[in-house]
Amino acid sequence: MHPFPLEPDRATMNEMGRLVLDRVVDRTDKLAARPATRTLSPQAEAELVESFLAPPPARGGDLKVLLARLDEAADCALETAGPGHLAYIPGGGLYSAALAEFYNRAVNRYGGLASVAPALAALEESVIRWMAREVCGLPEGSGGLLTSGGSMATFSATVAARHHRLGEDLASGTVYTSAFAHHSVAKAARLAGIRAAHIRTVPHTPDLRMDPHAATAMIRADRDAGLRPFLLVATAGTTDTGTVDPLPQLADLARREDVWFHVDAAYGGFFRLTARGAERLAGFEEADSITLDPHKTLFMPFGTGALVVRDLAALHVAHDGTGSYLQDMGAAGSVPDSGRLGPELTHEIRGLRAWLPLHLHGVDAFREALDEKLDLAEYVHDMLSGVAELEVPQRPDLSTVIFRVRPADGSRAAAERADEASRRLLERINGHRRIVLSSTVVDSRYTLRVCVVSHRTHHDRIAEALQIITPEAKRHTRYPQAVQPYEGLDRLVPGW
What we know:
By secondary structure, this protein is α/β, with parallel strands linked by helices. It has 16 helices and eleven strands. The strands form two sheets. It has a seven-stranded mixed beta sheet with strand order 1-7-6-5-4-2-3, with helices on both faces. Strand 2 (about 175-180), helix 7 and strand 3 (about 200) form a beta-alpha-beta unit. Helix 4 (about 95-105) packs across helix 13, helix 6 (about 150-165) packs across helix 7 and helix 8 (about 210-225) runs parallel beside helix 9 (about 245-255). Residues about 475-495 have low confidence and may be disordered.
């Protein structure tokens, strides 16, 4: 037995690495054939969960056996990495990002203070600057930090806005968002010390976008009542419907009313790499801060979020802190300390999981993948719009398509029956286990969602999805309608 079991020798490390790599490659290679939903019965799932609640043993086990157990645990989940996951906003996880993360965790460099690992801190800063300036269009001097996800990014943005506009007097601060904003927006405001009663829900227009006129009226009414409006949060790609708020108009409003303008672009932000996305997401350039989630539309592993800000000093002053035990840590030139830009002092070098794929594949590969998702969403919209039994309320701004069963007439009772039929439709669709859709509520109507985000989702799986959805919606039709390739996909999908 090795005298130091926590320090395996080279041969042992090679053997352990091969065992893990072989399993990862095998699982990744078989993703297209794997079920998109859980496969265990409720009883078997409960038993498996209970088995994983056991504490660790005193003596070590066998890696092959433990990896087999991990496979069981990974199978007891939605297959979010596969091409059939069209629910929520999936994070497919690039293989190259996984390799980057393996290297990163093994090297294990500290990321909170730039002077500890200056070159790797510069690597991370290059990713942030690219996001802030090239993707979002913010000016020189902008920057930010990588986070564990959009929720933490939005929290830090809210803290910065609160500190910049309210100082230490929080009692009368008010925040403005919409009914379709991610729930983390209101949560961030509460965590930042804002009263729940001062978090305003701005009405939306019939096309599900925040109404700038209503927002103006609410801000002015609150100011007249002695409150202090300080933060307006728009959404660039809502989770429910993928809709983009009128960013240029809201940016103008924020300037007129002197409030911080934050854009939640966790889902939609990286679509700006495409020509269509840049047009639909105009207005980022005017934001004070923007939330991005590389683990969504940059296809990175879960746990990869970002916050970019126009004025890095505002982020720094809201989060700065130090102690005498840090007195030996000097500055690293032009690279800021990420630990002084957010709530976390200790964290890994998060930028490597984005830096390596971007440099390995090139930005064009991501741009083309995102263009493909826009094409596929338009295709889904066009095909479902031709199904008489379905109601498809709007064209997608990005890559989310919403639909539901069409009511027999305009009565409330008919709408309720249609909602129940939509619930059953979702169950039948997901019961095929080749795709997974999810639902939401849009203006009191139960609504289904098709969200095309995974880099592994291509025309073949979307065509299969439509061959499942269409006959299930028709119910009385025995044979599904033929699914035709969408015009323009031949440039992205060979053979179509």
